[in-house]
Amino acid sequence: MSISLLIAMILASMVTIGRVWLTILFSIVSGWFLAYASIKNRIFENIYVSLIEVFESVPVFSFFPVILIFFVYDIGGSLGVELAVLFLVFTAVVWNIWIGQYQAFKTVPQDLLEVAENYRLKFWGILSKVYIPFSIPRIAANLIPSFADAMFYITVSEVFAVGIHTYQVFGIGTVIANFVASGNYFDALIGVIVIGIFTTVITLLLRDFSKYAVEKYGLDTEITVKKRGRIHFGYTTRLTNSLSYTTKLSKVFPTPVRLRRSVEEEEEKEHRQLWKVSGILTGTIILVLILYGAIRTILSVPPYTWGYLISTIPEDLIAIGVDYLRVAIIAVISLVFAIFVGYYIATHERAEKIVVPIIQAYAALPAPAYFPLLFLVTISFISKIFGPFTNEIYVLFLGFISTFYYVFYSFWMGVKNLPQQYWEIMKNYDLNFLQKLRYIILPGTFPYIIAGMSSTINSAWGGLAIAEYWPNIVQNYNLGVRTGLMKTIDVAIATGNIALASWVSLFFGIIVIIYSIFFTRKLMDLARKKYIAEEGIYLV
Amino acid sequence: MFVFKGVNIAAYDKELIAIVGPSGIGKSTLLRVLGGFVPPKEGEVRLMGKKITRPTPKIALIHQSIATFPWMTALENVKLGLKHRKLPKEEEDKIARKMLELVGLSGFENFYPKQLSGGMRQRIAIARALAAEPIVLLMDEPFSHLDELTAEGLRQEIYQMIFSPETNLRAAVLVSHNLNEVIELSDRIYVLNGSPATVVDVIKIEMERPRDPRDPQFAKYLDELYKSLTPTKKKLNGERKE
User: Fold this and answer.
1) Chain B contacts of A440, Cβ < 8 Å?
2) Least confident residue range of A143-152, A281-290, A485-494, B159-168
3) Burial annotation A376-414 (CB, 10 A radius, 16+ → b, else e)
4) A127, A214, B71, B157: which could form a disulfide with A218 (CB 3.0–4.6 Å)?
5) Rg (CA), chain A
6) Alpha-carbon distance A5 to A75, whole Å?
7) 3-state SS string over A198-258?
8) In DSSP terms, which residues pair with B202 in a beta bridge?
9) Chain segment B148-171, per-residue pLDDT in tens
10) pLDDT higher for A242 or A81?
11) Helices and strands in chain B, H and E counts
């Protein structure tokens, strides 16, 4: 192991992490403007929020064929591959950040907005002094899981093969994959350690930033938050924010002596009109682009290809059924883990201080990078125990380690956010563990469980996409399954059958969206209607 | 650093005692010490001679911020107070309905808290506490989040509710900063003041119930309370001798 190799690994890690932060920063900055546009214009808001909710429920890997067609083939070259990697990571992190910012903007307390109006803050003033500071704790809370998610997807997307072509960009994912492919496991392990150090340090810094954000920008008193729009529980902190800014504002800006009403009303009207027009325009452009893309794609596929694609539907349905079963197993195991471990650490301060940072740091360590090494160490032992089910166990295990974190984190936060009064009532009436779970903890954390399970299920598809077809994972071992929709997509991409990969991805996307509308969203609506623990505390 | 020191408080049979003091003095913390929720650094809490080391259904707490469970109906909320008794379902149902009737919520059994007013929600919380068959009831400013009319209505009824023959309650402790309220409801008032806080006065209210705030005797007690709450050198470590 030479020093130059170590430096190369450090550089590769920095490049990979740089890509991740580039996409996260782009998501944050664009999210502020989009959230502002959506609160200013109802038409844009409806399109924007609906699109986020749809795209959020589409697993990242179903964007893969789109990425291939648009970036790798249409743009091409190293720029195309680089953009493809960035776009894939972007699709993994952006929805959650955007919806969090939108929700933060929607819940800015009326008092703060009135102060801003009082001092006649213009667009940039109100955005930078009120909306952006108010959204910081929400963004900070989202950064830890978003970073973990981005790391997972970037390490697999830095190198991918389509047919006989292998596309890759420089980064730690590529470096580790190349070491594993050449049987240089020790160097691969060093690579995992290097990226592990980076992700651990960044996760710990993000934890501190999250605490700082809540301390600095969190509301320092109970004030009425006018809730408009849908509450989103994904990785959210409490819906509290920056009252302290009001006092700062009142000190910095002098009270206007006299309001020149007629002129200002006119300005206000023009300002609103501008937002309305630009909102409608942007919303319409987005819809037209989506429609144009869809029609262009449909027309570009010859009829005989359509015939072939449609004939695969029965097989696809079986494959998706099998994969849903795998996802269900992963989700149930993750939920049970979350409930028991999450409850234990949320109620044991010392354990929490140790375990939560470890789990957070572990989640940010990209599973695709270290999984081959784990496979290498355990294969002989696991195959002896599970025999013909060995591959299935590995697939489920990779699904679990790459996804359990989301429901765990969400449930843990739900438990932490239960009102103090509920804990006192549980103690007061001497409820046993199962009674606590049944009557209070599970209903009280229901919205968090649904949000966490939704993310866990979405990420489980990513784990399956990697594990269901992984030729030469180590030492000529092939990890794979007989049937599975993710395998169908993987094989189609690997053999250059982009039409099939796109078709199955589209088919899969539609099923996931239908499932999301009829199942996840229904449960979330129920959670919002009945299971908001904070609403059980009556404060005038 | 002690929040309070040398505090000695006693509640006798069928007695409603009140604890008053300036904001931030530690009234709610003291109530939680009495309920076993916060262990005292020094001293102890005894219920009928038995040391209290942790929360128990025998000492039920009613919160300042009215706490009900939005996913449970009024009846289910009350039943929660009965779970530790492991009763058959029918028995549980019967007692919960009786407690709701006692607090004047008969007919609202299947309503969810969100469908009820703040006053009605607080009645649910009282019914839940009474269903646990407590010996002592701790009330942490139970009317502070209600509008004045609702609070007045509930104040007039609460004494009859908690010391009704239907309950086994032996004593109640009320924490409040509303001086009219404590004179209207209490048998004795402990006044906390200073840092660390101590009991600076104990006032026994000897007026027939219901008490009228326009009664000159009421005004006299009010004056006495105001005097005790203003900074004074007088410190009583314990009860004033009657």
Assistant:
1) 69
2) A281-290
3) beebeebbeeeeeebbbebbbbbbbbbbbbbbbbbbbbb
4) A214
5) 25
6) 32
7) HHHHHHHHHHHHHHHHHHHHCCCCCCCCCCCCCCCCCCCCCCCCCCHHHHHHHHHCCCCCC
8) B190
9) 888 888 888 888 888 888 888 999
10) A81
11) 7, 9
Burial of A258 (0-12, 13-18, 19+ CB in 10 A): exposed
Tracing tokens 């059994």 back to the chain, one arrives at B109
Answer yes or no: are the C-beta atoms of B16 and B187 closer than 8 Å: yes
DSSP A479: E
pLDDT of residue B77: 96
Nearest-CA distance from A423 to chain B in Å?
Answer: 10
> What does the pLDDT read at residue A272?
65
Q: Report the relative pairing of strands B46-47 and A165-168 from DSSP bridges.
A: unpaired
Give me the total of CB pairs closer than 8 Å, taking one residue from chain A and one from chain B.
83
Tell me the backbone φ, ψ of residue A476, rounded to 5 degrees: 65, 10
Cβ contact B1:B197 at 8 Å: no
Q: Which of A422, A431, A446 sits opposite B67 (nearest CB)?
A: A422
Predicted local confidence at residue B60, as pLDDT? 94
3-state DSSP: chain B helix, strand, coil percent, rounded to 5? 35, 15, 50
Q: Which residues pair with B15 in a beta bridge?
A: B171
Is the pLDDT confidence value at A501 over 50? yes
- The model's pLDDT over A349-364, given as tens digits with 9 standing for 90+, comes to 899 999 989 998 898 8
Asked if residue B210 has a cis previous peptide bond (ω within 30° of 0), the answer is yes
The CB-side HSE value for A391 (13 A sphere, CA atoms) comes to: 18
Q: Which two tokens stand for residue A300?
A: 């570009």
Mutation target to probe the B interface, by most B beta carbons within 10 A, among A422, A423, A429 is: A429
What's the ipTM? Answer: 0.88
Counting beta carbons within 10 angstroms of the beta carbon of residue A492, is it exposed (0 to 12), middle (13 to 18) or buried (19 or more)?
buried
Contacts of B88 (CB under 8 A, 6+ apart): none
B21 C-beta neighbours (distance < 10 Å), count: 23
Q: Are the C-beta atoms of A89 and A20 separated by less than 8 Å?
A: yes
Note whether B18 and B175 are within 8 A (CB).
yes
Hey, what are A276's tokens? 């309305």
- For the segment A402-423, the average pLDDT, to the nearest whole number, is 89
DSSP assigned state of A430: T
Distance of alpha carbon A302 from alpha carbon B176, whole angstroms? 79
Q: Are B203 and B183 in contact (CB under 8 A)?
A: no
What residues pair up with A168 in beta bridges, in sequence order?
Answer: A159
Is the confidence at residue A442, as pLDDT, over 70?
yes
**Minimum CA–CA partner of B76 in chain A:** A439
Spatial separation of the C-alpha atoms in residues A535 and B126, rounded to whole Å: 18
Out of A68-72, A386-390, B69-73, which region has the weakest mean confidence (pLDDT)?
A68-72
Judge: B145–A435 Cβ closer than 8 Å, yes or no. Answer: no
- According to DSSP, residue B213 is labeled T
Q: Any idea what DSSP says for residue B191?
A: E
How many Cβ atoms sit within 10 Å of the Cβ of residue A426? Answer: 20
Element (H, E) at B67: strand B66-67
- What is the dihedral angle through the alpha carbons of A451, A452, A458, A461, rounded to the nearest 10 degrees? -160
Which residue's entry shows tokens 């919960």?
B96
- pLDDT at residue number A270: 66
Distance CA A213, CA A242 (A): 10
Please give the Cα distance from A244 to A220 (Å, whole number): 7
Cα A397 to Cα A313, A419, A471, B34: the distances in Å are: 28, 35, 17, 50
DSSP A438: I
Chain A: nearest CA to B46, how far in angstroms? 16
Question: Using the 8-state DSSP alphabet, how is residue B25 labeled?
Answer: S
- pTM here is 0.81
pLDDT, tens digit, for every residue of B57-99?
Answer: 999 999 988 899 999 999 999 999 999 999 999 999 999 999 9
With pLDDT > 90 as the criterion, what percentage of chain A qualifies?
Answer: 30
Q: Does the beta-carbon distance from A429 to B81 stay under 8 Å?
A: yes
